[in-house]
Amino acid sequence: MKYIGLQSQIWKNNTRSVLLLIMFPIIFYALTWLFFYFTLTFQDRPLGVEEVNMRFLYAFPWITLGVLLWFLIAWFTHSSMIRAATQSRPLERKENKRVYNLVENLSIAAGMKMPAVNVIEDDSLNAFASGIDERTYTISLSRGIIEKLNDEELEAVIAHELTHIRNRDVRLLIISIVFVGIFSFIAETIFRSLRYGSLGRGKKGNSGGAAVLIALVLAIIGYLVATLVRFAISRKREYLADAGAAELTKNPRALASALRKVSGDPTIEAVKRADVAQMFIENPQIGLKKEKSPFATLFATHPPIKERIRILEQF
Predict the structure, then answer these.
(1) What residue segments make up the domains of the chain, in order of their start?
(2) Is 161 a catalytic residue?
(3) Which of 161, 247, 291, 307 is labelled catalytic?
(4) Contact (Cβ atoms closer than 8 angstroms) between residue 247 and residue 3
(5) Secondary structure of 4-70 as H, E, C letters
(6) pTM above threshold 0.85
(7) pLDDT digits over 174-206, tens only?
(8) Cβ atoms within 10 A of the Cβ of 113, count?
């Protein structure tokens, strides 16, 4: 696979980030309008489109404020949330000079500021990059991948993660994760209300019950659409980061060898969240999945690792 160029990919990811920032709120507003429309048709006196629009416009600023607050909180706290979700911690230079030298040398070669380095205390082999700017860019490596890869293989993995940072993949992914989280939270809240709360016992009457069911269906639709977009972004970015690592190290077979070792044991026990799992070089939850559904490839967070290895060995 030919790498399409750093500046070209940065431009594309910056454009995608802007499009996501526009698209997800539009989806949210559209689903909210549909909620008002379908809910109000269940009333004894169905309302016209004009009155539906009026009610939507009345709710619009409150909806916007809620989405904006959610986004800002997630934007400024994402680093601490990711550290908590992966149980990673800062890796001090004096603790492992080998890793620091590899990251530093590759950063100099790439012409970028060296990111922070974290370690995940797990014997499995995996790694990921995170952050939205130079202040928060971080490469996290599992203890297993540090100890079980040779220098060339570990250098290739670090180059892969540095490419994610250079390409602005990490920023794009975090934006998509934030918005998917909104739909997920709404759907889960409504579902729990239906299952455990008064809504589930039908105390609100037929119209109230119908409104909740409509809201749940629309929230699920929004979640599925947003998730499919997020997964598609995640799959493509792995191929591009593989190509970027091969270009940076001039050693594509080292990354192919590293991926082959990673595929044997990528499971990180601490990682329970699917949105965080897609940030890794290989899905760290893969060992926890017992069955594959017919839609597995559609909802896969990563492309097949065998295909990635095949492409790298053709460089």
Answers:
(1) 6-312
(2) yes
(3) 161
(4) yes
(5) CCHHHHHHHHHHHHHHHHHHHHHHHHHHHHHHHHHHHCCCCCCCCHHHHHHHHHHHHHHHHHHHHHH
(6) no
(7) 877 777 777 777 777 777 766 665 555 544 455
(8) 11
